[in-house]
Amino acid sequence: MATPPRLAFLASRTDEAQATRQSYASRYGNATPEECDVIVALGGDGFMLQTLHRYMSLDKPVYGMKSGTLGFLMNHHRPDDLLERIHRAQPAILKPLEMLAVSDAGTTVHALGFNEVSLLRQTKQVAKIRVFLNGRIRLDELVCDGVLVSTPAGSTAYNLSAHGPILPMNSATLALTPISPFRPRRWRGAILLADTEVRFEILDHYKRPVSATADSTEVRDVVEVTIRESADRTVTLLYDPEHNLEERIISEQFAS
């Protein structure tokens, strides 16, 4: 019989997630993230993103179970057969977006976004943004509340709420989606190849300040933001085969 994997149980701060963590740790043991074979994340999508950011450098697969309000990135919570489920789980490889944001104070911030990188106006004034793809101007002036670049894994989150397209997991594409666009009036975004470099230049940034956010990292008063898919950073999520991430994304396209 194969040696069972060493598991590290991590949980969000809710009482439900903490109680579940204690129950699983008592039953299966609880290794540290550094010593484990698989990280088990208990919570919602927000906690999953926190886990990915914090432990990405360990290169350990993450098996998530829903114990929160939103759990698109998580497996269903069932108390039994955890080891068998992990043994049967299928991997999904995620590549984050790399954000390079320059503020009007001259500071430069690097951050990663597994779901999306979004730009939003900070005041009642609409934003005016120039859009470059691979160094070429594609929109000289986008007048909007904001704009975002989404990965396939994040395309059913904020991107979908902003009326962006749902992207298949293995499509090697990104979604470029405006948020409440005013001009050009008929432009609703674009689907880009994953190796496209997207650069946003903020026009009239003193009068129309804009913030940039990569997952939970926010930079205020940006003047320029460059986004590209990471070439060398990945994380591995594990999913039950009957409800894997690819199937969930396909199902979202037929949801009523």
Automatic annotation (TrEMBL):
Q: Which reaction does it catalyse?
A: NAD(+) + ATP = ADP + NADP(+) + H(+)
Database matches in InterPro entries: ATP-NAD_kinase_N, ATP-NAD_kinase_PpnK-typ_C, NAD/diacylglycerol_kinase_sf, NADK
- Identify the cofactor(s): a divalent metal cation
Keyword Nucleotide-binding (UniProt): yes
User: Is NAD found in the keyword set?
Assistant: yes
Q: Which GO terms describe its biological process?
A: NAD+ metabolic process; NADP+ biosynthetic process
Could you tell me which PANTHER family the record lists for this protein? NAD KINASE
Which family would the database say this protein is a member of? Belongs to the NAD kinase family.
- This protein is called what? NAD kinase
Q: Which organism is it from?
A: Pseudomarimonas arenosa
Tell me the name of the encoding gene.
nadK
